[in-house]
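Minutes, project check-in

Agenda point 3 was the complex the collaborators sent over. CS summarized: three entities, 882 residues total, and the question is how they sit relative to each other. Sequences were read into the notes so everyone works from the same version.
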Amino acid sequence: MTDQILEVKNLTKRFKGLVAVDRLSFSLETGIIKSLIGPNGAGKTTLINMITGFLSPTAGEIIFRNRLQKHNQAHRIAASGIARTFQTIELFKNMTTLENIMVGCHLRSAKEIISSAFRLPGVKKEEEKIRDLAWHHLKSVNLEKYAGQKAGNLPLGEQKMLEMARAMASNPSLILLDEPVAGLNEAESQRAMEMILSIRGQGVTVILVEHDMKVVMQISDEVLVINYGRWLAEGSPRDIQKDPNVIDAYLGGEAIGACH
Amino acid sequence: MTTNTALKVSSFTVFIMILPWVLNLSSATAYYVDVMIFVAIHSIIGCGLSLLLGYAGQISLGQAAFYGIGAYTSGILTVRMDVNPWFAMAAGIFVASAIATAIGIPTLRLRGHYLAMATLGFGMIVFIVFNEYIALTGGPSGFGNIPPLSLMGHPIESSFSFYYLSWLAAIIVLTASLNIVNSRPGRALRSIHDSDKASASLGINVAMAKVKIFVVSGAFGALAGSLYAHYLTFVNPPAFDVFFSLKVLMIVVIGGIGSVWGAVFGAALLNFLPEWLVFLHDFDVLAYGIILLLVVMFSPQGIYGLLAGAAGYFFKFIRKESDHD
Amino acid sequence: MFDTILSGQIIQYLFTGLTIGAIYALTALGFNIIHNVTGIINFAQGDFVVWGGLLMVMFARFFGFPLPVAFFSVVGVMVFIGAFIYYFNIRPIKKPSILTMIMVTIAVSIILQGVAMFIWGKEPYALPSFIEGPPVYVYGAYIMRQSFWVLGISVAMVLFLTFFFNRTLIGKAMRACADDPGAAGLVGISTPLMICAAFMLGSALGAVGGAVITPITLMEYDRGAMIAIKGFGSAILGGLGSFSGAVIAGFMLGILESFATGFVSSAYKDAISLVLILGVLFTKPEGLFGSGANKKA
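CS then shared the predicted structure for the full assembly.
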């Protein structure tokens, strides 16, 4: 049996009568890129929000690294090693690019208010460590030249890269990317794809939600298709492209390979 | 602390140290030293709200409660139980922190208007207790004979000596606040201000971070209140009413919400303004209201923002890129 | 024998509570009207009540206007002040965040308070009842005649608002703006005009409350904050945005306070209702009746 990082069993989320995710089960192998696709409103973001603790499931189980997720507080889930980005970019707009990543290092540091206020021993060292780590992550996405600029002033493409770098700074073992190339031009998409591949290269497992089928088919190891919150198909990109159920779900049989 | 911040704090400290000697050259000395003591005390409580409001983005309209808790704890312990004033001060800070924790946990789950009203209500309840729990607080007439703080047997009574004590406290608080802002917990707070979703996704316990900074603001408020009580040697409720809470808000907002330095500027303005506007008598309230309105409408970064903007224009090269204070 | 005294007392407290509660209800309605159209909680709402009372004293006692003239002059002045506040303080705000709007309305509140102190000084003012005469004896309780005015006018205001928002063109337009400002704009409703109307109506409503309650409670310049928080509390208890909820909650809070004064302690009556308000904010911010428009924020 392969090494599984995440297992989702019969996961269900209901909002006032509307079923957003319906008895969904799948598992995720360590170290791969698994894409999550489906028509608009299929429940992809709801699923991500449940796995990252922003929403609590109505029913079902999420097992991460062989441990059942009981608490649904996002910050605790983050501490267990799951990072994410957001569909609507959620940068700290009024903080500098470097500071954004420094916040990303929150879980890798520990100093609290009182020791920080009075610069008790160890604070300086930890601050230096955070700064070094942040620079390292900043360089990994080539954003050094923006280090001192407010994150809100960066171009869209750089903002998406920064958000990924910030999530990576928390040293996760699983990262969920919610539409990382949406709105990007060709060159920017290319950079984002390289970044995603390099994340996998560092041994971090990736769940990718993306509408751009070209990107999905190009970089995914596996694809999971959901529709109306239900499991529709799962397999390699090539299999998925040929799956009649999937083709059917995407608007009357238009081949998904040709979407872009 | 970055070198730039350290430079600012040390030049400010030198300025404060020599100020009384400069004032000594003129005749109105004693009086202005007195005003400066209140600037120090109000800077301390202002720094607390600045951290909460300016950095964490959480409003409090009840800071007077912590000021009062500090003052009354100091007063009651020293007068009725003969406790050493320094211990009484520490006790005041402890009591205020405990109350801030208890009230902060449910309160800071609220947002926006709800948070503003809840803190306003909390301040009013504490004010009613000061007025009505006569056995403990002396009721509306308050009580006096609070002993001064003393250092190695010497009471710190004169305006001159208290000036240095209060400013020592204020500069420690200011430095501590700047340190918080520029380190891990401070960055966490600022991140919450921009996006609490993203903060949580990076492992920050958003609810706890807000409560912690609320407790810090309460502790600063109590320290200020305790200094106030030992300086005036007398406390009564009107000093801790809703209007004082609003005054603390004005200090922070008028001074400049984007920096803890703003609290110091705001405290100076709100204490010197009535001196310059003596002809207005009690109507300085009106002046405060108008200034607050103008600042919020036309200069949301306050006086500090205006000054920093102007200074930044001239000394662009001095400001370090990542120095946030 | 004892029973009749007790029941007389209860009726007494009930009436006092209803009278005070009517003011909370009117204040809560003022909060709701402005909130529904603009999303702003107007911290100056309590000062509108204070101004209503003090202007009524000025017009009726010092200028010697006949009561109805004085009353409508108060309403007229406050409608003007409401419009003034909107055009000069609310409208120019470029980035209206919640925090900014809280601070602007607090500043307006401080200014209203300062001007009131400038005009009227710090002392409380009395005003004779609208109709002079001894208290009315009802089932063992003596009810002040002014209480009937307070209740009557409050009921009239509620009926007027119901009519206004359901039957008049401008009232319907205001509701449309509250529901969907974008769509309202598309059908030619001017949102700024509607917000202005909300401020005019909100301040007039507060002023009516102040004008009718002053003969019972007196009025002074710095009463605004306490009235505001009780009115806001009522709006929250009733579910922010809900008119009927606000009225019921206002009366409930008034009655609670009156009974607290009678049976617990008059010194802590305000503290008791504040604790109740905080309790509801902490545990059930959507209101006691559970169908408020907003849950949090």
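Noted in discussion: Chain A is about 35% helix and 25% strand.
Follow-up: revisit at the next meeting once the mutant set is ready.
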